[in-house]
Amino acid sequence: MARRGSPRAGQRLTPEKATSHLAAWKQSGATLSEYARSVGLSYQRLHWWRLRLGAPQVAEQPVFLPVRVLESPAMATDTRGAGLEIHASGGLQILVPADFDASALERLLRVVRRSSC
After folding, report:
1. Which of 19, 30, 48, 83 is in Cβ range 3.0-4.6 Å of 98 for a Cys bridge?
2. What is the pLDDT of residues 21-35, one digit of tens each?
3. What does the alpha-carbon distance between residue 104 and residue 106 come to, in Å, rounded to a whole number?
């Protein structure tokens, strides 16, 4: 009985077969472990061949991964747009909504400048 991680009968790879598997693995976009499992080979065997032969030079295909965008509490309160965030000296942080009044912001910034001098 073969021990875990050892090749099964008929699993011995020639350098040519290993090269073919490594090329197929690169094209698949799967991890080496996923590819090995899908073709009934051990990860250790393919990894050994990969180290010995190097991964074949195959044109890289872009891989798109799923993402999940989480809404931050600050974003949840302002549904009208991104707005601005101003960081001033002394750790002062001013959050300005997207539909801000420019003249009110100018007045606020003048006050902030005067008080920080």
Report:
1. 83
2. 998 988 888 888 899
3. 5
Determine the Cα–Cα distance for residues 49 and 18; give it in Å rounded to an integer: 6
Q: Do residues 105 and 99 make contact, with C-beta atoms less than 8 angstroms apart?
A: no
Nearest to 44 by CA among 73, 69, 11, 17: 11
Q: Where are the alpha helices (H) located in the chain, listed in sequence order?
A: 15-28, 32-39, 43-53, 73-77, 102-116
Can you give the pTM of this predicted structure? 0.40
Least confident of 54-58, 87-91, 108-112: 54-58
Asked if residue 56 lies in contact with residue 26, where contact means CB atoms within 8 angstroms, the answer is yes
Q: How many CB atoms lie within 10 A of CB 47?
A: 13
